[in-house]
C-alpha cells in the first residue's frame, strides 16, 4: 500500500517565501557587514586624502593579514560553539621563539616548520582539554593565554629579538609578488581554503553539526571529540603563522606582540555573522569582518585620530555585533537560538 | 521471517517482556509512564545492554554491545528529541555522517547529495520541496519526517519511533502517520511508541501494552476498541488480580 498525497499533507509544504526567509536569514548579516564596509570605504575615501591609494590599500591588506589568517581558523572554533582566547599569546610566543632560534643559527626552513609544529601542539593541548576532558574552552584557553604569554616573556626576558634581514624567511613578512605583499596573498589563500573546507568538505559539515547539535552528530557515528580537537589545532597553527608573519614583517620577535589580538580576531568573526553559540558560520563574513576592522583602524590613523581610540572602537563594535547577532538577526526565519 | 523476541529475568525496569514483530508489521507499544517502553526499545536499539534475555533477529539470536551493532543489523531508532542539526540543510541532515564524497573522499559531493535526498524524500512521499534549507526553518512535522527519512535511508529492517507525533499540529500528525504507512509498505517493520492512542488505530497492525516492565497484552489493532486499550493500560488493579488468580 502506498500512501496517498492527501490535501492535509500538502498544507505543510514549505513555501517560496519560507525559502526566501531562510536564505535571507542565513545571509542577512553577511550582507549587512558588506554594506557597512562599503559605507566605511566611501567615507574614508572622501575624508582621508591618502586612504584610497593603491599603496595604502596594499598596506591595509598586509596589516590585516595576521588577523584574517587566525580569524579563518577561529571561524571553525566558534562554529563548534567554542572559543580560543590563547591565539594572541601564541602569536607572541611563536614570533619570539622564531627570532631566538634564528639567532642561534637554525636553518630558517627548519625554524619555520618547528614554530608551526609548536603552534599545532599548543592547539592540541587546548583541544584535548576542551574536547576530550569537557572543560569549558573559555577557561582552558584563558589559562593557555597566561601560560604562553609568560613563556614568551621568560624566553625573551622581555626584550625584542632582531631577525637578520638577509634570511629568506623575512620575505614572508616583507616580500611582494607583483607588487602585492606576500602576507596579503597568504592570508587570502588561507581564507579561501578555509571557505572551501567549511562549506565543501565533510569536516566543515561536522564542525557546523557539532555547534548545532553535537549529540545528533555523535549518534550519526561521527567522532565528535576528534572534530572538536582539530579546530583548536587549526587556531594554534594559524596563530603560529600569524606570529611568523608579524615577526618577519617587523624583523623582530617580541613577547609583547599580539596583545589584544584575540579580541580583534573574535570581533572579526562575530562581525561577519558567525554565531558565538555555534552552528552558524560565514567565512565570507569573517573576511569582510576582518577587512572592516582593518579599514576602521587604518582610516582613523589617516584621519589623525589618536590610535588609542582604535581599541575603544573595536570593543564597541564587538558589543554591537554580538547584540545584533542575538537580537536583530535572530528575528529572521530559520534561526532558533 | 523476522521475529524479535526478548526475555530477561527479574530486572526492575523490565520484568521479562516478550515482544514479537513480523516483517512490514506496525506494532504500537503503549503503556503508562515508567512502564518500560523506552528502556525496552533502547535495549532493542543497542543503547542499553540487558542483564539477561535474548533477542532473535531474522531467526538468529543476536547481542548488541552498542547502537552501532544494532544499526549494522538494520535496526534504526528515531529518538524523541529528533536528533537533527537545525543549522544544516535537509539533504545534509539526511546524510549526516555518511555524506556522498568526491575527489578521493576529500570533498562533499553536494549535487549528488541533493539529488539523492530528493529521491529519498519522493520515495517516501515527503512533501519538502527544497532540500537546501536548514531544518531549523521547517515545521515540526517536516522535521520529524526528515528524522524518519534519515533513519529509513540506512535501509533498516526495523524502525523504532519514540513519540514521533508528540508536540505536532493535527495536519503534521497526518504527515507522519502517512509516512509510517509508506515505510511499512516497503517491508520495514515499525515499532511505534506513543501516548496518542487514536494514532495507533490508524497505522498499527498490533498493539502491545506494557505495564510495570512486562508486556501485559498483545492485541490485534483491527478488532480492539479504544476503551479496551485504555482499560488495559490503566486498569491495573484488575490486572493484578488476574495475575494473582493465574
TrEMBL record, chain A:
List the subcellular locations.
Cell membrane
Keyword Amino-acid biosynthesis, does the record have it? no
Q: Which InterPro entries match?
A: ABC_transp_permease (IPR001851)
UniProt KW keywords: Cell membrane, Membrane, Transmembrane, Transmembrane helix
Q: Which GO terms describe its cellular component?
A: plasma membrane
MF terms (GO), sorted A to Z:
transmembrane transporter activity
**Keyword Zinc included in the entry's annotation:** no
Per the record, membrane topology reads: Multi-pass membrane protein
| TM stretches of this protein | 28-48, 85-102, 109-129, 177-198, 227-247, 281-302, 308-330
Principal localization reads membrane
Quote the PANTHER family the UniProt record gives: ABC TRANSPORTER PERMEASE PROTEIN YPHD-RELATED-RELATED (PTHR32196), RIBOSE IMPORT PERMEASE PROTEIN RBSC (PTHR32196:SF72)
Name the UniProt record assigns to this protein: Monosaccharide ABC transporter membrane protein, CUT2 family
Q: Which organism is it from?
A: Microbispora rosea
Q: What is the lineage of its organism?
A: Bacteria, Bacillati, Actinomycetota, Actinomycetes, Streptosporangiales
UniProtKB/TrEMBL annotation, chain B:
Q: What CDD domains would the database entry show?
A: ABC_Carb_Monos_I
Query: Known PROSITE patterns for this protein?
Result: ABC_TRANSPORTER_1 (PS00211), ABC_TRANSPORTER_2 (PS50893)
Whether Hydrolase counts among this entry's keywords is no
N-terminal signal peptide: none
Keyword set, alphabetical order: ATP-binding, Nucleotide-binding
Is Nucleotide-binding a UniProt keyword of this protein? yes
Concerning SUPFAM superfamilies, the annotation shows: P-loop containing nucleoside triphosphate hydrolases (SSF52540)
The molecular function terms of the Gene Ontology recorded here are: ATP binding; ATP hydrolysis activity
Q: Name one Pfam family in it.
A: ABC_tran
User: Mind telling me which PANTHER family this protein's record contains?
Assistant: CARBOHYDRATE TRANSPORT ATP-BINDING PROTEIN MG119-RELATED, SUGAR ABC TRANSPORTER ATP-BINDING PROTEIN
Supply the name of the protein: Monosaccharide ABC transporter ATP-binding protein, CUT2 family
Species of provenance: Microbispora rosea
Amino acid at each position: 500500500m502506498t500512501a496517498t498525497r492527501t490535501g492535509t499533507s500538502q498544507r505543510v509544504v514549505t513555501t517560496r517565501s519560507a525559502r526566501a526567509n531562510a536564505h535571507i536569514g542565513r545571509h542577512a548579516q553577511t550582507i549587512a557587514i558588506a554594506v557597512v564596509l562599503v559605507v566605511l570605504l566611501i567615507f574614508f575615501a572622501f575624508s582621508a586624502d591618502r586612504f584610497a591609494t593603491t599603496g595604502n590599500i596594499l598596506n591595509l591588506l598586509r596589516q590585516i593579514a595576521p588577523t584574517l589568517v587566525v580569524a579563518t581558523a577561529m571561524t571553525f572554533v566558534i562554529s563548534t560553539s567554542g572559543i580560543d582566547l590563547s591565539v594572541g599569546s601564541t602569536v607572541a610566543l611563536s614570533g619570539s621563539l622564531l627570532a631566538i632560534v634564528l639567532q642561534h643559527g637554525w636553518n630558517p626552513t627548519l625554524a619555520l616548520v618547528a614554530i608551526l609544529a609548536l603552534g599545532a601542539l599548543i592547539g592540541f593541548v587546548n583541544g584535548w582539554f576542551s574536547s576530550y576532558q569537557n572543560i569549558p574552552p573559555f577557561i582552558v584557553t584563558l589559562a593557555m593565554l597566561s601560560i604562553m604569554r609568560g613563556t614568551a616573556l621568560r624566553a625573551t626576558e622581555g626584550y625584542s629579538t632582531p631577525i637578520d634581514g638577509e634570511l629568506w624567511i623575512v620575505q614572508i613578512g616583507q616580500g611582494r609578488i607583483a607588487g602585492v605583499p606576500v602576507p596579503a596573498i597568504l592570508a587570502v589563500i588561507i581564507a579561501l581554503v578555509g571557505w572551501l573546507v567549511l562549506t565543501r568538505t565533510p569536516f566543515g559539515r561536522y564542525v557546523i553539526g557539532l555547534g548545532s547539535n553535537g549529540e545528533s552528530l555523535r549518534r550519526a557515528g561521527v567522532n565528535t571529540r576528534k572534530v572538536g580537537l582539530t579546530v583548536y589545532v587549526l587556531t594554534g597553527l594559524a596563530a603560529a603563522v600569524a606570529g611568523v608573519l608579524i615577526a618577519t614583517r617587523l624583523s623582530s620577535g617580541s613577547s609583547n606582540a599580539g596583545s589584544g589580538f584575540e579580541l580583534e580576531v573574535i570581533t572579526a568573526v562575530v562581525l561577519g555573522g558567525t554565531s558565538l553559540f555555534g552552528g552558524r558560520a560565514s567565512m565570507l563574513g569573517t573576511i569582510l569582518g576582518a577587512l572592516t576592522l582593518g579599514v576602521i583602524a587604518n582610516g582613523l590613523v589617516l584621519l589623525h585620530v589618536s590610535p588609542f581610540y582604535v581599541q575603544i572602537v573595536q570593543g564597541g563594535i564587538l558589543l554591537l555585533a554580538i547584540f545584533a547577532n542575538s537580537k536583530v538577526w535572530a528575528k529572521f526565519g530559520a534561526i532558533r537560538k | 521471517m523476522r521475529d524479535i523476541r526478548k526475555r530477561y529475568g527479574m530486572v526492575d525496569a523490565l520484568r521479562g517482556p516478550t515482544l514479537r514483530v513480523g516483517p512490514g508489521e506496525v506494532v504500537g507499544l503503549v503503556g503508562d509512564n515508567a512502564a518500560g517502553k523506552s528502556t525496552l526499545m533502547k535495549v532493542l536499539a543497542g543503547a542499553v545492554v540487558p542483564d539477561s534475555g535474548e533477542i532473535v533477529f531474522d531467526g538468529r539470536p543476536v547481542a548488541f554491545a552498542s547502537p552501532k551493532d544494532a544499526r549494522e543489523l538494520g535496526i534504526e531508532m528515531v529518538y524523541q528529541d529528533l536528533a537533527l542539526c537545525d543549522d544544516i540543510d535537509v539533504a545534509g541532515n539526511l546524510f549526516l555522517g555518511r555524506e556522498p564524497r568526491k575527489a578521493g573522499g576529500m570533498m562533499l559531493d553536494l549535487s549528488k547529495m541533493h539529488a539523492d535526498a530528493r529521491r529519498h524524500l519522493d520515495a517516501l512521499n515527503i512533501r519538502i520541496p527544497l532540500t537546501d534549507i536548514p531544518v531549523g526553518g521547517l515545521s515540526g512535522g517536516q522535521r520529524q519526517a526528515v528524522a524518519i527519512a534519515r533513519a529509513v535511508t540506512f535501509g533498516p529492517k526495523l524502525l523504532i519511533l519514540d513519540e514521533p507525533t508528540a508536540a505536532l499540529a493535527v495536519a503534521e500528525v497526518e504527515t507522519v502517520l502517512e509516512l509510517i504507512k509508506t515505510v511499512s509498505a516497503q517491508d520495514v517493520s515499525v515499532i511505534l511508541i506513543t501516548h496518542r492512542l487514536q494514532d495507533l488505530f490508524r497505522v498499527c497492525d498490533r498493539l502491545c501494552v506494557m505495564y510495570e516492565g512486562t508486556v501485559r497484552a498483545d492485541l490485534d489493532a483491527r478488532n480492539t476498541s479504544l476503551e479496551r486499550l485504555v482499560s488495559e493500560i490503566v486498569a491495573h488493579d484488575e490486572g493484578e488480580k488476574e495475575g494473582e488468580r493465574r
